[in-house]
Each structure stands twice: as structure tokens, then as C-alpha cells.
Amino acid sequence: MELTKYRRKEDTVMKWYEIDAAGLTLGRLATRVADILRGKNKADYTPSVDCGDYVIIINAEKIHLSGNKWSDKKYYRYSGYQSGMKEISAENLIAKHPDQLIRKAVKGMLPKNKLANQIYTKLKVYAGTEHPHTAQKPERIEL
To answer: What are the b/e assignments for 102-134, b being 16+ CB within 10 Å?
Structure first.
């Protein structure tokens, strides 16, 4: 009888991927990125081990939202004080912080545990086409 192999983080070879977000729908992009970050695209995926890859997203300001979501979609934060509820629409958020729209979508698709914070640090989002990770030789993915 052969035992099931348990994947360890030390045995994992992490790759770097680059995705151009220009014209892509936010939700569809975020689901694919979350799967790559967790390692679900690999044959030896283990839920309790960080076995995912690094993902670089460029052209974050050119992301696409369908319908009236640019004005209707709201992001909320609460300070904990009275009347401390703040809201911002998607179009205002992308005008101020173009990377935050993608970051919030991907973060919401990761598991809610300690491992998610470790996985989330492997996501790199940039508003333009330039990024400082050319030394890692990222592999380009077309979605």
C-alpha cells in the first residue's frame, strides 16, 4: 500500500506570473488570480500549505466592470466610532488607488485564516505597465 504524499513548503518551487488586466472583467480576473495564489492550478495542491505562485498584475487602472458597477458598487470601512462609516464608489476608488480595486476583490476570494495573509503577500498589483520584478522573469499569462 502506498501512502499519500504530504506536500511541504520547502519542497515547493514557486513561479512568477504576469497578467495584463487591460480590458479584463474584475471578478473573472480575481478568481483566476486567487486560484494561482493558493496553488489550486497545481496537481499536488494541499489546502494547509502555501504552495501557490507569485502573481504580478499590470495595467490595474484599465480593469473592466460591467453594467453600472462603476457608480453603484460601494466599498465600506468603519472606524469604530459614531458616524465613522465611510463609503467610496468603484470609480472614485480607482481614481485614487488603482491597485486597491483588484486587491480587495482577490482578498475577498482567499480563505479567512492565517494562511491567507501569507498568500496575499504574493500578489503584486501595479497601475501602469512597469514593475520592479523583471529580475524574476515572470511568465506571461493570457486570460
So the answer is: bbebbbebbeeeebbeebeebbbbbbeeeeeee
Which residues of the chain fall below pLDDT 50? none
CB 100 within 8 A of CB 61: no
The backbone torsions φ and ψ at residue 23, rounded to the nearest 5 degrees and listed phi first, read 80, 0
Main-chain dihedrals φ then ψ at residue 120, nearest 5 degrees: -65, -30
In whole angstroms, give the CA distance from residue 107 to residue 55: 13
Distance CA 12, CA 8 (A): 7
pTM of the model: 0.91
Q: What is the pLDDT of residue 9?
A: 81
pLDDT at position 94 is 95
Which amino acid is present at 62?
K
Q: What is the structure's pLDDT at 4? A: 76
In the chain, domain spans = 14-65+97-141
- CA distance linking residue 38 with residue 45, whole number of Å: 8
Class of domain 14-65+97-141: alpha beta
- pLDDT for position 2: 79
User: Rounded to an integer, what distance in angstroms lies between the CA atom of residue 50 and that of residue 47?
Assistant: 8
